[in-house]
Amino acid sequence: MADSDLLRLYSTRILALAADIPHLGRLPGAAGSATRRSPQCGSTVTVDVTLADGRIDQFAQEVRACALGQASAAIAGAVLPGRSRAEVEAARDQLAAMLGQGGPVPAAPFQGYEVLTPAREFRNRHASILLVLQAAAEAMAAAEAEAEAEAEAEAEAGASPAPANRA
Question: If we measure between CA atoms, which residue out of 26, 30, 28 comes closest to residue 46?
Answer without folding.
Answer: 26
